[in-house]
Amino acid sequence: MTTAVTADSLVSRAADLDAADPLRHCRERFLLPEGTTYLDGNSLGALPAAVPDAMRDAVHRQWGTGLIGSWFGGDAEWWGLPERLGDRVGALLGAAPGQTVVGDSTSVQIFNTLTAAARLRPNRRLLLTDAGHFPTDAYLADSVGEMLGLEVRRVPAAQLREALEADGDRTAVVAFPAVDFATGERWDMPGLTAAAHAAGALVVWDLCHAAGALELQLDAWDVDFAVGCTYKYLSGGPGAPAFAYAARAHHAMMRQPLTGWTGHADPFAMRGTYEGAAGIGRARIGTPTVLSMLALEAAIGAFDGVDLATLRAQSLSLTGFFIECCDALLGGRGFEIVTPREPERRGSQVTLRHPDAVKLVPAAAERGVVGDKREPDLLRYGFNALYNTHADAVRAATTLAELT
Ligand SMILES: *Cc1c(COP(=O)(O)O)cnc(C)c1O
Hints:
CATH topology of the largest domain: Aspartate Aminotransferase, domain 2
CATH architecture of the largest domain: 3-Layer(aba) Sandwich
Order of helices and strands: HEEEHHEHEHEHEHEEEHHEEHEEEH
Subunit structure: Homodimer.
Strand order of the largest sheet: 4-10-9-8-7-5-6
Number of strands: 15
CATH superfamily of the largest domain: Type I PLP-dependent aspartate aminotransferase-like (Major domain)
Bound molecules: pyridoxal-5'-phosphate
Protein name: Kynureninase
Radius of gyration: 22 Å
Function: Catalyzes the cleavage of L-kynurenine (L-Kyn) and L-3-hydroxykynurenine (L-3OHKyn) into anthranilic acid (AA) and 3-hydroxyanthranilic acid (3-OHAA), respectively.
Oligomer: single chain
Strand content: 5-15%
Largest sheet: 7 strands, mixed
Organism: Actinospica acidithermotolerans
Helix content: 25-40%
Number of helices: 11
Pathway: Amino-acid degradation; L-kynurenine degradation; L-alanine and anthranilate from L-kynurenine: step 1/1; Cofactor biosynthesis; NAD(+) biosynthesis; quinolinate from L-kynurenine: step 2/3
C-alpha cells in the first residue's frame, strides 16, 4: 500500500518537474521510438532529428552531384571538417577554437595523445593511469608504456593524489577518465589537473562520459590534453569519430606518433618527409570519415542555444530523482546504488548492483526500459538531459520493482 502511494506521488512529482524543465523543447530534437524509455545514451546516443535529412543531402547532393568538388568547394568543404567540427565540440568542452580536432576512433586518439604527451616529458619514466579505466584506455597505456619504455602504474582515481605525492617527480603523464564508465563516479578534473601540474606532470583526460553531459572548462582548468567519443552524450551516431584536444601552449612542441599526411603542414605538396601543421591540425591523421562527420555535424545542432550549466542542473535533477525513485521502490529487492549520492560526485548515469543484473537488464528492455549491463552484477542507466525526463526515471524504477 505505502509503495503504491509512493509510486503515485513520484509519478506526479515527475510530471511537475518535467513541466518545469527548461530544456523540454530539446526533446523534439530527437527521434525516439514511441513507448521506449531510452536510458542507454551513455553507450549510443539517440538519433537527433536533423540527422536523416543531413545524411540524404550528404549522399545525394554533396557526394552524388558535387563529387570530388565537395572536398574544397561549395558549402560542403569536406576537407575542413576535422577542425570545423573540432571547434563545435570544443565549444562544449570549454575550449577556445583551434585546439580540438575530430577524427578516427577514441582508441586511436588515446594512443596518439598519450604518446604525444609522454614525449613532452622525456626525462620522466612513469605513466599513472586509472586502475578502473575503460579497457581500451588501459590496454593502450600499456602499449604506449612498452613502446616508450615507461612504467605504467594503475592507481585508483581516489588515490591519485597520494601517488603523485610519492612519485610525482618521476611522473610524465597522468591519464584518467572524467567519469568512471562503470560506476558513474565523477572525478575532480580541475583539482587533479592542478595536482599533476604541481608535480610537473601532464594530464590526458578521457571525456567519453563527460562530453555533452557536464560543464567542462578545459582552457580555464589548464588541461593539457583530452580525448573522447562523440557517439555517447553527443549523439553523433554509431561509430561517430572521436575528438582530441591539445592546449595551444603545447602545439609547437607536441609530436603525435601517427604522422598521417593530412596533419602535414602542406599536405598537397606531397613531400617525402613529414612536417606537422603549425596548430592543432597536426593531430589530424588520414582522410576524414566524411559521412560520419556530417552526421555528427547535424547531431551537434541539438545543443544549439543550450546553456551547459542548465544542462548539468537538469542532468543532476534526473539522476538524483532516479536515485530517489530507486530508494522508494526498490528497497529490500537486492539492489544497491553504486553511483555516489553527492551530486558533485556524479556524472550523468546511475549504476545499480544486483546479483541478477545480467537477466534484469534485458527483461526491463523487453518492457521498454533500455539500459545496459556490465558483468557480473551492474545495471547502468544513463540520462541525457536533452531528451530524458523524470517520467523516464519513475518508469525505470517501477519496471525494475515489477521484475524483482
Ligand atoms: C566509450 C569509451 C571508449 C570507446 O573507445 P572506442 O575507440 O570509441 O571504441 C574509450 N574509453 C572510454 C573511457 C569510454 O567510455
